[in-house]
Fold each of these.
Amino acid sequence: MLAHVTEDRRREQTLNQHCRTVALLCAYAAHSLHLENTARLVGLLHDFGKATRSFQNYLEGGNEHPNHSAGFGVAGDEDGNLGIFLQNAVLS
């Protein structure tokens, strides 16, 4: 499952690599606030919407760029209900 692909398709970044990298950066940035664990979780979950069929189709050459972050879209949850639940849980 991919998170990023260059236009020439020569470079790809998996969703796993991307979210783990962002999680580390978030934890580092939140260190002075003592919120590393919360920030790490947000980093891991921030792009779950990229695990949807519509976003993966887009990366494979689809024309329409789906909103992959609104409501913390979650794979298998195209209408976003589970994603909204996760978003509220993380933000509360």
Note: The first helix runs from residue 15 to 29.
Amino acid sequence: MVAPVTTVALSGVEALPVEVQVSLVPGQPSFTIVGLPDKAVGESRERVRSALTAIGLALPGRRITVNLAPADLLKEGSHFDLPIAVALLLALGAVPGDVGEDNLILGELSLDGRISQVAGVLPAAIAAGRLGRGVVCPAANGSEAAWAGQAPVLAPDHLIALINHWKGTQVLTPPKAELAQDEGPLLDLADIKGQEAAKRALEIAAAGGHNLLMIGPPGSGKSMLAKRLPGILPPLTPAEALAVSMIHSVAGNLVGGQILRYPPYRDPHHSASVPALVGGGTGPSRARSRWPITACCSWMNCPNSPARRWRRCANRWRAAPSPSRALTAMSPTRRTCSWWPQ
């Protein structure tokens, strides 16, 4: 018997569907995961085994094979723990057979069965809406998944709570979507006396989303002006907020699952290297080159650094692509101006 469950693999901010297939066949007892898993996915067999034991279920003495299809797509991250466990429960007949067909599942399992927070839940929930499925995610990511608005969300904090919900002995409350709270008053541009030309340039750059380069001797007011730029930036539109929050979600920086309301602000040091400024490495948390679609960055005294560094920064930011083609498919039709603060 093969029990399939749907989850996702993250490629940037795109959530690609992945089918988790579990097969139980007679033979020497073993637990094998195939389908190009990385180290974190390969270690999930120990977390799944311990979590199932913690809730009173022992793995059968059979040969267990877990296939992550498509097999040529690299699977990274600990969010494959929960779909593998659910697929095993399906193969054992411990949960109803339709849960794998109706839901997109992701989450990390602790050794005692608790479901821990993972990254990338927001793009995964949007992908679930496109597929016409519900979402099963950790409780800590519930409000994040609720912003997708297109699919029902289950956000259990423990594996036994999820099983009881599917069996009808417990009801999980749907999570509520939440906005990030204000961080307090920002510095006011009106506090600056004089500098009329520089303040006019800041206003134009903030209103039009333009790059702005300030050059001047120390003490002329560059840093003072730049620190007040976030206070005049317009709030994010709903589409921009989802785009920026998707990037933060994949990077694991979306605090409490609360969607962002204002453009993020970056203040790198003028001695920062090109990889540090525009992005380097393979991890999504370093992908700064894609933030500036709705972000503000202040980089003082950049002429003191090699010219190619700040020119590459400006060119890279100007050419930054839209973070997700999925935005055209998931434009929040159910969320209008009534849900977005003016």
Note: Residues 285-293, 316-342 have pLDDT under 50 and may be disordered.
Amino acid sequence: MAIARRIEIAKQLLTELPLTLDRLPYTPDFEAVYAKFLTRAGMALTRHEVWWALLHARKRGLGSSPCKRRRNRPVVPASIPAGS
């Protein structure tokens, strides 16, 4: 299977992740993602190969994962000088 196809599948799965990618290894959620990946790929791949594809898809900015969420930062009114 071409690497580009693996990354395309990973991109799709990134949008479905219930956790951040960093918290996924060694969890039942990873096993579910792994099973979905194998189904979509139509061939046997190792967990390492699937993990690699997920990481590279994220690194390339593909897909949307909860890892892109950021905490809301407090808004400082413009009337307060910086450093106060």
Note: The first helix runs from residue 3 to 14.
Amino acid sequence: MMKGAKCTTSMIKSNGDTGLDKRYIRIWNIILIICTVYWATLIFSMSAQNSGDSSSLSLAVSKFIVKTFKFGWSAEDIEYFVRKLAHIAEYAIFAILLTLSAYTFRYGRLMQVKSVMRRRYSVCFAWVVATIYSATDEFHQLFVDGRSGRVTDVFFDSFGAICGVIFTFFILYLVSQKRERAALLKKNGEEDSDIL
């Protein structure tokens, strides 16, 4: 009975309290980091557009929304809201990718702490990095033709990042609870088989 319990405990510890194969997590971490870098580059490229290209894109999206949902407003009426929602959405996605990249990072001290603490570290890291990146991105826009850096946009971006990290924290919590219950059931099953 003790041998089975020790074996299961060893398996959980060696996989960072997740019960997943290390190579599987490492592959996912690499994929997530690549996606995060790609998304950061996409945000930078969108900010590098001059005012004419940026306005044309947001207006085209606004026209598509008005045409699809048959709003009583014109595309020009909702363009401002579309632009701000775009800020929130792109940084929510950025924060989700940052959180998952940090959570699955297997090197250093991060994977040595308990799952709940790792989630907290990951979401804090993601929100701080996303907010700082937003500030630097707005600064970068000061040097783009016709664009300007706005503190209000940093607030919208930061709010989007908060939405992203809250959503990811909740999902990670549910996944962690499911895996802990599965590991406990497996442990109890091995103990029962040892007794028999």
Note: The CA atoms of residues 46 and 54 lie 8 Å apart.
